[in-house]
Design brief:
By secondary structure, this protein is mostly helical. It has 17 helices and no strands. Helix content is about 85%, strand content about 0%. It is globular, with a radius of gyration of 20 Å.
Length: about 400
C-alpha cells in the first residue's frame, strides 16, 4: 500500500470518527415529533434524548483524553466503539422515554471516543497550522454526515418507524470498528504512564483552565456550538410542526445547514494557512452574529410561517450561520490544542467537554422555551452568535496579539 493511499484512508477514517457526533444526533431528528407521540411524552422530554447524549458525550471526553495519552489511541477507540454499538442496540428496544434517554447517554459514552481521540491523532501527526487545515478539510467532508443522515433517517422513519434509525446507528458503529481495525495504526509514540494519575489529571486540566487563550477558544467554540445545537434540537419541531413540512422532506430542508457547513469548511481549509487561525475565527464569529440577528428579525417580523417563503426565512440565515460556524469550530479547536503537544489528549478532551456540556445545557433550555414557532430558536442563535464574538474579542484576540 502506497503512502498516498494510506494517507487517504487515514483521512477518511478520521473524518468518520469526528462525524460520530453529527451522525448520532442528526439521523433521527425527523423522528422526534412521532417519538413524542409514540412514547406518550412531550417536546421537552423527547429533546432530552439529544441533551442526554450530549451530556454523556461531554463527561466521557474527560476520561478518553487521559486514557488515550496512557494506553494509545487505537485501543481506546476500539473499546469506545464496542460500547457504542451495544448501547445503540439497547435503544432499538427501549420501551419508554426514560429508558431511551438512558440508552442515549450510554451510547454517547462510547461515541465520544471518536472526536476526542481523532483530534489527538491529528495533533500527533501534524503541526499547528497544518492541523487546523486538516481539521477544516475534515469538517468540510464531515458536513456530508448531516447532509445525508437526516434524509436517510427521514425515509427510514416513514418506511420502518423511528426505531429503525437506531438499527442504522448500530450498523454504522460495526462498520467503523472494522475500519479502525484495518486502517488505524498507533500514533501515540510516547504514552504517558502517569496520564491517569489523579494528581496529574488535575494538574493537566488546571493548566488548561489557567491558560487564557485556551479558555477563550473553548468558550468561543461553546457559544457557536450552542447555536448549532439549538438548531439541531429545534429544527424538526420548527420545520415539521410549525412550518408544516412533511417528514420525508425534512432532510432536504435540513441539508441547507449542512451545505453551509460544507462551504465554510472548504473555505477554512483553503484560507486558514494564509490568513491565520485568529483572523479566520474572528470572521466566523462575526458571521454567526449577523446570521443569527437576521433570522431573529425575520422570525419576530412574522415571516417564518408555513410555505416556501417562511422556510426560506429560517433556512437561508441558518445556512449562513453554519457556514460561519465551520470557520470557527475546527480553527478554534486547533488553536486551543496546539500549545499542549505533550497532553494533546487532555487538551482535546477539555475543549470537547466544555463545548458539549455547554451545548447540552443550552439544548435543554431550548426545549423548555419552545412556543410552536421559530422565534425561540432564532433568538437563541442570535444571542449565542453575539456572545461568541464578545468572548473572542475580549479573551482570545488580545492574548493572541501579545
Amino acid at each position: 500500500m502506497t503512502a498516498v493511499v494510506a494517507s487517504r484512508r487515514l483521512a477518511v477514517l478520521l473524518t468518520l470518527l469526528v462525524a460520530f457526533g453529527p451522525v448520532c444526533t442528526d439521523l433521527y431528528l425527523a423522528s422526534l415529533p412521532d417519538m413524542a407521540r409514540d412514547l406518550g411524552t412531550d417536546t421537552a422530554r423527547v429533546q432530552m434524548t439529544l441533551s442526554a447524549f450530549v451530556v454523556g458525550f461531554a463527561v466521557m471526553q474527560l476520561g478518553y483524553g487521559p486514557l488515550s495519552d496512557r494506553f494509545g489511541r487505537r485501543r481506546v477507540i476500539m473499546g469506545g466503539v464496542v460500547l457504542y454499538v451495544a448501547a445503540s442496540l439497547f435503544c432499538v428496544v427501549a420501551p419508554t422515554i426514560e429508558t431511551l434517554i438512558a440508552g442515549r447517554f450510554v451510547q454517547a459514552l462510547g461515541a465520544c471516543c471518536g472526536p476526542v481521540v481523532g483530534r489527538a491523532v491529528v495533533r500527533d501527526i501534524f503541526p499547528r497550522e497544518q492541523a487546523a487545515k486538516v481539521m477544516s478539510y475534515m469538517a468540510s467532508a464531515m458536513a456530508l454526515a448531516p447532509l445525508v443522515a437526516p434524509t436517510v433517517g427521514g425515509w427510514f422513519h416513514v418506511w420502518f418507524g423511528w426505531r429503525s434509525n437506531f438499527v442504522l446507528l448500530a450498523l454504522f458503529g460495526v462498520a467503523l470498528l472494522l475500519l479502525v481495525w484495518r486502517w488505524l495504526g498507533e500514533t501515540n509514540r510516547q504514552p504517558d504512564p502517569t496520564a491517569l494519575d489523579l494528581g496529574r489529571m488535575v494538574e493537566n486540566y488546571g493548566a488548561l483552565l489557567r491558560d487564557r487563550v485556551f479558555i477563550g477558544y473553548a468558550l468561543t467554540v461553546t457559544m457557536v456550538f450552542g447555536g448549532v445545537f439549538i438548531y439541531l434540537s429545534s429544527a424538526s419541531f420548527v420545520l415539521i410542526d410549525a412550518l408544516k413540512l412533511p417528514p420525508q422532506h425534512f432532510g432536504l430542508a435540513f441539508s441547507m445547514a449542512s451545505v453551509g457547513y460544507l462551504i465554510g469548511g472548504f473555505i477554512a481549509a483553503r484560507l486558514t494557512h494564509r490568513i491565520g487561525i485568529e483572523r479566520m475565527v474572528g470572521v466566523g464569529v462575526m458571521g454567526c452574529t449577523l446570521a443569527g440577528a437576521t433570522m431573529a428579525a425575520l422570525a419576530w417580523a412574522g415571516l417564518a410561517r408555513p410555505g416556501l417563503g417562511g422556510i426560506a426565512a429560517v433556512m437561508v440565515p441558518v445556512l449562513l450561520f453554519f457556514l460561519s460556524a465551520a470557520l470557527v469550530l475546527p480553527n478554534a479547536t486547533a488553536g486551543a490544542i496546539a500549545p499542549f503537544p505533550h497532553m494533546a489528549g487532555a487538551a482535546s478532551a477539555g475543549i470537547g467537554f466544555i463545548q458539549m456540556a455547554g451545548g447540552a445545557a443550552i439544548g435543554g433550555l431550548a426545549g423548555l422555551v419552545f412556543d410552536g414557532s421559530a422565534r425561540p430558536m432564532a433568538t437563541g442563535m442570535a444571542i449565542l452568535g453575539t456572545a461568541a464574538a464578545a468572548v473572542f474579542l475580549i479573551l482570545v484576540r488580545p492574548a493572541a496579539r501579545r
